[in-house]
Design a protein that fits this description.
117 residues, alpha+beta, 3-stranded antiparallel beta sheet, 3 strands, 12% strand, elongated
Length: 117
Amino acid sequence: KPPLFRVDAPARGKKPAAKIYALDQGELDATLDKLRKEGAKESAWSISRFKGLGEMSAEQLWETTLNPETRRLLPVAWGLLTFDETVTSFSKLMGKGEAASRRELMELHGDAVDVDV
């Protein structure tokens, strides 16, 4: 899951300047509280908000969403379906050669879906 915010933090004591990514407003608030406790002045840091992955540079994408050491993965499941049923459903939605199945699925159940990932 990509972060919403990046804080460019100044050097603090022995800590070097850093880019700190925050997943949501709660993490941003916690990061800013930590910076204040470490003695960083509010005028010394800057906050950027991402609107989507398209705004990130290749380096930022690597740091936040692709690097296996730092990325945050979310499990994806479709309701109470088994693993195999979930895979089959996602194959219908995203697979090549599944246009007819995808259309049928959307016509039958398109109004009942609420996705938030």
